[in-house]
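Narrative of activities, Objective 1.

The group set out to show that a structural description can be obtained from nothing but a protein's sequence at a throughput compatible with the screening campaign. Below is one input-output pair from the validation batch, recorded exactly as produced.
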Amino acid sequence: MIKNPETLSYTKLMAFSLHNRNYPSWIFDEKSLKIIDANQEAVDFCLYDNNELIGLSITDLWHNEDLSDIIEDLEIHSTERSFFGNLKHRKKNGDVVQMRVRAMRSLNPTSFWEVHLL
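Output recorded for this entry:
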């Protein structure tokens, strides 16, 4: 556990915040669409083991019919700092569930999106 979050770099503070949430959350890189960090709630919800979520693309988690809209939103609204909506989410076992998603864009040090399943 990190004792003094005020002294952390922005990226470490983002990770500290992520892992202290009590709802499924992860961070993905905007260019590669790869998940670079996820909290335990996301791992449990998505039915993955330990670090299996890390390195997956959001294309592995979000249902195909929603995916083109998501990628288009990222391209069209590249100056936007948030996204809120309903998306079909695919778990590891293949189950698809409708989820309320809130995503926030961070531009420091590069473009990351922090995703929260609500």
